[in-house]
Structure of R-spondin-2:
Amino acid sequence: ANYGPNPICKGCLSCSKDNGCIRCQHKLFFFLRREGMRQYGECLHSCPAGYYGLRTPDMNRCSRCRIENCDSCFSRDFCTKCKTGFYSHRGRCFRGCPAGFAALEELMECVEDCEVGQWSEWGTCSRNNKTCGFKWGLETRTRQIVKKPAKDTIPCPTIAESRRCKMAMRHCPGGKWRRPAKTKDKKKKKKNLMERAQKQHSIFLATDKTSQ
């Protein structure tokens, strides 16, 4: 019998008073809902979470996703949306993205990461574009971006870095060497001390004559 007026029979071609829909209208999906010990059929336009629509010549059905931690799927073996806290990657769900892939938090997906090449050798030690005339300078090395990330929001690792280095040639050939500022300061301090000492000595001699 067809129990059309009953809400449980909405979209059914045939319906049982106790078991609900037995056969669905064209394009609708048959879903067997379970509530405790009872189960009954429903005809739906789209399958609920954890199920996907399987179309067959006989009747379209809602089939359960067989992928772990999947909330909705396209087919038995391809998840389209993972449960909360899991990232979607190639139809599977992961707690963390595999190596070579970066987590896109807003979509909870794993996308291709930025790939960089090997570091070059350290460059020439220089300072102010000169390779002499200073004791210390900087040397730099670089690497190239081999593959850009799939999303612009994924940052690439640093492609250049520098470090302090000691110059091979402190004095430039043919150039005048200037005494470092620290040496000048020391000489000036020494001269001031000598002048102060001479002044104090002169005062002492003058005082000594007066007392006599």
